[in-house]
Amino acid sequence: MGKPLLADFGISISELKKNPSAAIRAAEGAPVAILNRNTPEAYLVPADAWEEILETLDDLRLAEIVRQRQGQKRIRVDIDDL
Fold it and tell me: What's the CA gap between 44 and 10, in Å, rounded?
């Protein structure tokens, strides 16, 4: 059973080697599956999409910290006391 293709565009490793810039342009900002014998071996992700992925992962980590801290005892502080 092969791996699922998680991109709308795919290109063989051989074609990618011939002209990587053309592969990136053809995908118009979408991820490109790099195929070896019609099986995805890697994904080429545009810089903007990668930055968005990292931002989302960071948000998820921060949300988990918030959930963990929700049950902690709260301490009242008056701004004038600082």
Answer: 10
CA distance 14 to 16: 5
- CATH code at 9-73: 3.40.1620.10
pTM of structure:
0.69
Which residues neighbour 27 within 8 Å (Cβ) at sequence distance 6 or greater?
Answer: 8, 9, 44, 46
41-59 residue pLDDT tens: 999 998 999 999 999 999 9
Q: Which amino acid is at 31?
A: P
Residue 40's Cβ-count burial label (10 Å; 0-12, 13-18, 19+) is: middle
